[in-house]
């Protein structure tokens, strides 16, 4: 617990040192960054009852801002923390981060003055995590919020570029402004011009939906008649240099549109840096992998694995020994997992395209081992035959011979339609799904009780991700749909894990209906499940109690004594993380 308190103090110091004092900007309140999240009234009332009005107001403000540091996970199978720190410091120096990452101490009392943590902060912009077992996690300090002088003069507003809300959120995390994110631009902007960058947030349209009501390519005049003129007050995210003219911005299909060199929040960008050696990942996600406590030689399932951050973290904790099955229902997302695993040289990860709601394979289904054998045999011979076509091989005969051999060797029956399909592949090439580096295996599911540990990092409302500038589309009904879907996925997880095994459930949302309410459902539905302690424990306790909706429906959360078994990461806490939730279950005898 002392180490956990030390981490809170460390990150609090990083947060404090990241806030710099700058001269007051121009008198206009327009050209600043002071966003306000506009919640659906029913959703706001729900969260106020969960957190209290004052606390929820603080959470909402925290959600509009990025963390004051980047969290980097080192691939300990390929490098060390010290080696990575040395390389990152050199990269920061080369990119000219102009010393901002050292930060200027803010005013007020520093709780860490004179402590070893305070001394470590003086050593540079990159700090090792102090929690035992997490020494391979690095914190890279940033700075902000900065007040920027946009050069406003009454009657002569600065040249501007309006970007989409999603683009603005990415910029606040350290990205550049790319061409697809540009919505509108001032007239006469030329390459090299300095432009103010503001965000256009979705507004309610007459049909009841939400949209950015700006035609891409709109010309800005700097007048109150400009699109979203008043709505963009307090939504200026920085200043940059146009990399192309106004005409080029809307002719090009890709590339950097604005080089952001004066940001409200400044974090070093490590995009495409030290691939395979590091992975940028939020601290709670790393803690989730540790909570699962994977062991070498075990069979582990990551049910919703894309993009692969937690999957690779688990594989490294297993020392790349055992079997880690990673699932996603999207072909492209499965390929992303494969790519990341290859970059990190991890071999214990097996990926499948599969909808997790169909993850259970009943014992009375036909076994597909022989089918896979014959399929693999066909695949090998297809490659061989297609590479030998120029030598005059008879493809039809080759394919038929391969099928005959597969059946004689114990394989299952292959239909004529399958043979014709195989012939076409042999003539025309393997296609995208079978190309080297692009093959994605489908799965028919897995037998019950076939995994030692299961991670369900469930798709959720994502109301803990930051920075977030828009929540208007979130409704009570949409939150209920997420919760229903998560329960169905959890039911699958319970069936797939063996007695004596472990389930870890996590989300990146502040919604108790998807967090504590899921735990209540799990414990009430499956009597053989019990909450287990987690290590390390650096998050806060869960929410105890319940919520009664206006229609009389009661949503039960945790009961007294259960709150200390889960970890709830509050985005407004001194840890300065995203909003996150972790629950760990021990699985007893299912005969009970």
UniProtKB/TrEMBL annotation:
Keyword S-adenosyl-L-methionine among UniProt keywords: yes
Binding-site list for S-adenosyl-L-methionine: 304-310, 328, 355, 457
Limits of the SAM-dependent MTase RsmB/NOP-type domain: 211-588
A GO molecular function held by the record: RNA binding
UniProt feature coiled coil, ranges: none
Record organism: Populus trichocarpa
An individual GO BP term: RNA methylation
Superkingdom classification of source: Eukaryota
Protein name in UniProt: SAM-dependent MTase RsmB/NOP-type domain-containing protein
Active site residues per record: 508
Keyword entries, A-Z: Methyltransferase, RNA-binding, S-adenosyl-L-methionine, Transferase
Family note: Belongs to the class I-like SAM-binding methyltransferase superfamily. RsmB/NOP family.
